[in-house]
Design goal:
CATH class: Mainly Beta
Oligomer: single chain
Shape: globular
Low-confidence stretches: 1-5
Strand order of the largest sheet: 1-2-4-5-6-3-9-12-11-10-8-7
CATH architecture: Beta Barrel
Number of domains: 1
Strand content: 35-45%
Mean pLDDT: 92
CATH superfamily: Acyl-CoA thioesterase, double hotdog domain
Order of helices and strands: HEEHEEEEHHEEHHEEEE
Number of helices: 6
């Protein structure tokens, strides 16, 4: 339990930006840090979540983020703090728009626009979950799948992620025969309880949304994450929050890749709660390069 509480606390520390939004030129400035890890770049979901929190700090508390559109411009250095500059584009009667740049070394590593809305009544419908999933408790943990591997990334994924991820479709962490399919699905939730703050849960969902959006691109071609010479990088990310949810309760994440071409792959995802309600939709395009296609 101590280890589980530690990983969730790491997520909360990531989302707890410093700075009180003191305006510098036309931006409110906040600063975020990266927890130590063995990888050479900052996890994209972290920068997304921190950008959402920075923007949230400049909006009326009654307005919740409902969409973001961002571009990953440069890899983030995990050994440097990240400065978030928030520009207040508009505050209307019902909606607020914010532009966020995440800076390192004086240049942006992420550029994002997010929209916030006052709660409102209106039409209601949503697609049902496209699969019937087994109970998450019946599925193996990531630690059970790869926790035995003596490699720093495998150890981090198995024991240090703030989310417990249970694969419904076969995991592609390891090499081997993989059934080619452009679809994936997992259950996920944080490893411990989160505060009762809907804004934190929405930002944490942005964090989790980046975990495996490009996985169905690889799975469609029978590839694993450890394919020799594989190079993958997120290019852009879009997300729409439809309903409130708690990330410390199980969420079904259903993913699909409709296309890959020109060394780019598109992944889409839908989050459902255990009641079957669609709570968020995500899309991301990424660079996917393999040595057999090198010119």
């Amino acid at each position: 339990m101590t280890e589980e509480l530690g990983t969730t606390q790491t997520l909360l520390d990531i989302l707890n930006l410093s700075g009180e939004g003191q305006a510098r030129t036309d931006e409110d400035i906040f600063v975020g840090d990266t927890p130590s890890h063995s990888r050479g770049r900052v996890f994209g979901g972290q920068v997304l979540a921190q950008s959402v929190m920075a923007a949230t700090r400049t909006v009326e508390a009654s307005r919740a983020v409902h969409s973001l559109h961002g571009y990953f411009l440069r890899p983030g250095d995990p050994h440097q703090s990240i400065t978030f500059g928030v520009q207040r584009l508009r505050d209307g009667r019902s909606f607020s728009a914010r532009r966020v740049h995440a800076y390192q070394g004086g240049v942006p590593i992420l550029s994002m626009i997010a929209s916030f809305q006052e709660p409102a009544d209106g039409l209601e419908h949503h697609d049902p979950a496209p699969i019937t999933a087994p109970d998450p408790e019946s599925l193996p943990t990531t630690a059970q799948l790869i926790g035995h591997i003596d490699h720093p990334v495998a150890r981090e994924w198995a024991y240090q992620r703030p989310f417990d991820i249970r694969h419904i479709t076969e995991a592609i962490y390891l090499p081997g025969k993989i059934e080619a399919s452009p679809d994936s699905a997992v259950w996920l939730r944080t490893t411990a309880k989160m505060p009762d703050n809907p804004a934190i849960h929405r930002a944490a969902l942005a964090y989790a949304s980046d975990y495996m959006l490009l996985e169905p691109v690889l799975r469609a071609h029978g590839k694993s994450w450890v394919e020799p010479g594989l190079s993958v990088a997120s290019l852009d990310h879009a997300m729409w929050w439809h309903r409130d949810c708690r990330v410390d309760e199980w969420l079904l994440y259903v993913l699909h890749s409709p296309s890959a071409s020109s060394a780019r792959g598109l992944g889409t995802g839908q989050f459902y709660n255990r009641a079957g309600e669609l709570v968020a939709t995500v899309a991301q395009e990424g660079m996917v390069r393999l040595p057999e296609f090198a010119g």
